[in-house]
Write a structure and sequence with these properties.
The chain is of the alpha+beta class and 271 residues long. The chain folds into two domains: 185 residues, tt1808, chain A (Alpha-Beta Complex), CATH 3.90.1570.20; 57 residues. It contains five helices and twelve strands. Strands 1-4-6-7-8-9 form a six-stranded mixed beta sheet. It has a three-stranded mixed beta sheet with strand order 3-2-5. Strand 6, helix 4 and strand 7 form a beta-alpha-beta unit. The longest helix is centred in the last third of the chain and has 62 residues. The termini are far apart. The N terminus is likely disordered.
């Protein structure tokens, strides 16, 4: 079967691919799979926030985004299609955008979806195919729809083919795009450096900031207390020196008086 080429897509589109893209539903606000439960929301927002903080502090080649529509044109479809990953990173700045036209600016190299029971088919089947056709390099999946949460996914292999992305023996996924591990901690997806340091979530970063502020305040209070102790000790030393000087002056005065009396005439005459 001959393959068709469509400019937005880096892969050769077959007629089956085109039929799929023309018929697949969009991620819209009223789509049932777009409703996020608390666990999905916490996973997505915590990872997005930690990636944002990491990107601000390190020289990386990507910009984190979350739940921002990725739009693309499909031959034979008048309206632009769209898909909205829970978390992704793009190669262009995303601040202030309402969407990202991937056929103009390129597909995100990394996307992540947090799967719930209401989004299993969408995330594991339809989005897997959409991201493959758009040219996403890594598609990480957080499985919260199973008894024991786990990580899995798909990525472009060394030959450029879409293949399963298997976790290592510790259940981690190494993202070559991010240069970070994806790990699960207490059922939540976290990013971790190659050296094993977890990226801070917003609550953790805030707690760390408050703890550091408290440590600095405590250190400042101790510094002021020590300065006060030293000032008090210095005041006491000066008071003691003053008293000693006054005592020595009084002794000298009395000694001088005694000397004058002794040298001035001996015994005092009797009345």
């Amino acid at each position: 079967m001959s393959a068709l080429r469509s400019r937005p897509f880096p892969v050769a589109l077959t007629p089956e691919d085109l039929r799929f893209l023309r018929s697949v539903a969009d991620d819209t606000e009223d789509a049932p799979w777009m409703t996020m439960n608390d666990a999905q929301w916490r996973n997505a927002t915590a990872l997005y926030a930690s990636l944002s903080t990491y990107a601000q502090q390190h020289a990386v080649s990507w910009y984190p985004g979350g739940m921002l529509p990725l739009t693309y044109g499909v031959p034979g479809v008048a309206a632009r299609k769209q898909v909205a990953p829970d978390v992704f990173v793009a190669t262009v700045p995303l601040e202030g955008r309402s969407s990202l036209p991937v056929d103009e600016e390129g597909a995100p190299p990394f996307v992540l979806e947090v799967v719930s029971t209401s989004s299993v088919r969408r995330d594991l089947t339809e989005k897997t195919e959409i991201y493959r056709l758009l040219g996403v390099q890594e598609y990480a999946i957080v499985r919260l729809d199973v008894a024991a949460a786990r990580l899995e996914g798909y990525r472009q292999g060394t030959t450029g083919q879409w293949e399963s992305w298997e976790p290592d023996a510790q259940g981690r996924l190494w993202s070559a795009v991010l240069g970070l591990w994806l790990v699960l901690r207490a059922g939540e997806v976290r990013a971790m450096t190659a050296t094993g340091e977890l990226l801070r979530t917003l609550p953790e970063a805030e707690a760390e900031r408050l703890a550091e502020a408290e440590r600095r305040a405590q250190a400042e209070a101790e510094r002021l207390a020590e300065a006060e102790r030293r000032a008090q000790a210095e005041a006491e030393r000066q008071a003691e020196a003053q008293a000693r000087a006054e005592a020595e002056a009084e002794v000298a005065r009395l000694r001088a008086l005694l000397d004058r009396l002794t040298l001035g005439g001996g015994e005092t005459p009797a009345p």
